[in-house]
Amino acid sequence: MKSLAQEIEGFSKGHLRKQSTRVTTVTGRKLIETRNGENFQMADDSEQDGDEACGFVQDLRLDLQVGTIRPFLLLCESSQDAAHDIDTLKKCKVTHVLNVAYGVENAFPEVFTYKTVTILDLQETDITSYFPQCFEFINHASQQDGMVLVHCNAGVSRSASVVIGFLMYQEKMSFEEAFRTVKSARPHIQPNAGFMNQLKNYQP
């Protein structure tokens, strides 16, 4: 098992997936920004013209959706926004927060009980090695009649994998059943390929 420091040291932009983003400049010009590892390209987006190219719209709304997995277990629907919104946390009666993100600080340590388990969203990361401490925290909170919110950075890979693994461990579910359960509460989950293989082979 690699340490977190070793994983960070071995991380490079080459691990990043190819990403394309549509960018609208302040003049209304549409561009496609493409990043693939160390490479970067910018090109005109010819699909957008006419009236659609005359404005600039930026969506700054917070994504505060939370999916209920169990009466004591919640999963952030997408980003870490919910974990940083005190009103959402109180509305959901959260008492404990499991933070498995990288570089995301705990927002309200004076209000909630936190557990930080820094996990990198890389296929080679051994996520199952982090399960025992995560599951212990969730079980401890549930035994205290607490409510646990699990979050990472984007809410699709690390946190989802931890919750899937927890259901397999705690409720003896198969991978398929646990995956369906979490996906029904959080439709956009997408553990990376390495995590998926580990979960399929996980034997609690």
Name the helicity range. 25-40%
Beta-strand content: 15-25%
- Principal-axis shape equals globular
Helix segment tally: 6
Write down the CATH class of the largest domain: Alpha Beta
Assembly of the depicted chains: single chain
Q: Using DSSP, what is the number of strands? A: 8
Second rung of CATH, namely the architecture of the largest domain: Alpha-Beta Complex
H/E element sequence:
HEEEEEHEEHEHHH
Structural class: alpha/beta
What distinguishing features does this structure have?
single chain, 204 residues, alpha/beta, Protein-Tyrosine Phosphatase, Chain A, five-stranded mixed beta sheet, three-stranded antiparallel beta sheet, 6 helices, 8 strands, 28% helix, globular
Q: How would you describe the overall organization of this protein?
A:
It comes from Triplophysa tibetana. A hairpin with a 5-residue loop joins strand 1 and strand 2 (30-36). This protein has 2 domains: 4-53, no CATH class; 66-200, Protein tyrosine phosphatase superfamily (Protein-Tyrosine Phosphatase, Chain A, Alpha-Beta Complex). It is α/β, with parallel strands linked by helices. The model is unreliable at 46-61 (pLDDT under 50). It is 28% helix and 20% strand. It has 6 helices and 8 strands. The chain has helices spanning 4-10, 86-91, 131-143, 158-170, 175-185, 193-200, and strands at residues 19-24, 30-36, 39-44, 66-70, 73-76, 96-99, 113-116, 148-151. It starts with a helix and ends with a helix. The strands form 2 sheets. Strands 4-5-8-6-7 form a 5-stranded mixed β-sheet, covered by helices on one side. Strands 1-2-3 form a 3-stranded antiparallel β-sheet, with no helix packed on it.
